[in-house]
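User: Here's a chain of 67 residues. Predict its fold as C-alpha cells.
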Amino acid sequence: MVWAIRHWPALLQAHCATSWIAWWSLATVAARVIMAAVAVVIAVAREPGRACPDGPAAGVRTPQVRE
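Assistant: Prediction complete.
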C-alpha cells in the first residue's frame, strides 16, 4: 500500500483521474500480494524435505545402496 500511496502525488500532477488512481492502486497492491504469495510458495517448495514428504516422488521406492 505504501508503494501505491508514494506514487499518488506524481499521478495527481499528471492529471490522472482519481478513479483511475484508485483502480491502479488496487491493481498494484493486488499484483504485489500475488507476487509475494508465489515467492513464498516457491521458497517453501525448494526447502529440502518440504516439497514431498514421502521422498523425491511419492510412491516411488528409492534403491537401497549396499556397502
